[in-house]
Amino acid sequence: MEQLHIMHTNDLHSHFENFPRIQRYIADERLQDQILNQETLVFDIGDATDREHPLTEATLGQANIEWMNQIHYDAVTIGNSEGLYYDHQILEHLYDQANFPVVLANLWENNGQLPHFAQAYQMLTTRQGTKIGVIGLTASYKRTYPLVQWDVHPAADVLPSLLTKLRPQVDILILLSHLGLNQDRQLAQTYPELDLIIGAHTHHLLPQGEQQRHTWLAAAGKYGEQVGNIYLDLENHHLQTVRVKTTPVTEINSQPEDQTWILEQQRKGERLLEEQVVATLPVQYERVPAPHSSLDLTFQAMEELTNCQIALLNTGLFLTTLLAGPVTENDLHRQLPHAIHVMKTTLSGQDLWRLAMEVEKNRGFLSNFIQKGMGFRGKFFGDLVWDGLEVDPRTRQVFYQHQPLQPSQKYQIALLDHYLFIPFFPTIEIMGENEIIYPDFLRTIVSKYLQRTFGGGEKRDDKTGK
Hints:
Keywords: Hydrolase, Nucleotide-binding, Signal
Radius of gyration: 24 Å
Structural class: alpha/beta
Number of strands: 25
CATH architecture of the largest domain: 4-Layer Sandwich
Largest sheet: 6 strands, mixed
Strand content: 25-35%
Number of domains: 2
Shape: globular
Protein name: Bifunctional metallophosphatase/5'-nucleotidase
CATH superfamily of the largest domain: Metallo-dependent phosphatases
Family: Belongs to the 5'-nucleotidase family.
CATH class of the largest domain: Alpha Beta
GO molecular function, one term: UDP-sugar diphosphatase activity
């Protein structure tokens, strides 16, 4: 009887506070497997990096790769935090120093080739000769991947041919899936050739796994709060039994030096960002609406970028105040840590009126709404504020430049792509002509505006990392 122990992580999102215990657990389990003569494999299923953490931001993910190299992963795939949070050229070189393979079958260069850092699958052979095929797939965001010059394909476009090719060659076939639980379940029902789907993306936790027909599903939640374990028993290279469990990091012993290391990663990132002085501000810009507010600075940056005279923002975006004097990339990162982009939307006057009514309808609810995901890294959504547009909620009239909106006239508005992805403003998606502006995050747009307006620093280019 051959025994195989698979450990897996997913959606770590740069939660460095859990990394020491994860690393210690995997090392201890590997040692125990050696004693028991069990084979060990370790996989990561994407979204390992997140630019919310200052060290990831400062190093454009390289600090994460350095840590992952210490884990000695047997294979990883990428998530949208890698695929969409970095410019094309940054992602091209994210894994230059990695000591593990990146399996990724559905993200291609525009010339139809896989990127140089990736391979569609990995073939592994255990000490006893069992052959294991490992495929990687990531969520196919067709709207946004082309904005960073990637050609992404749905799983159904690439998986059948890979299964036809690999299934006859292997004893065990594993999919590293950054697709989400619903799609994992669908794939398990559709493709019984898959023995195991290790999932991610929707942050789902399957503490004891889930069996769909022939295929087992596993997933370890989010943020490194759990480490996944899958135990396979094989007889003559044939899979006999599968057991799945997850181990909470709270059950893994911590060491006194852990907290020192965690704090040092935070401080190291902050120091690197503090070295990048953006501008010198003449006055303090408050986090909330005020005579001098960060909200107004951001409106000006967005409107200048998009050549619009109307803009909309929510106050929950702004986490800190910008003090008078030198402002650094660390200040902007602390204020606007979000993975959110500026978007230029064109609407008819009739549809802009409808959007304004949606804003009014949801205003009270959203003020204290705890917003999670879709790039937002704050807590409360906050108040909605227009620039260049006046709304009279009593009469339901909307004015632009003190004149009522003309129903058939076209208006251009500076928004955020976040508003397209959350469900509160359906008019944006249904009726809007939407141009999402990549690769810069909102804070980078503000940074460049401050440098042009107030001077006093050199801005790193997010396209080159320099």
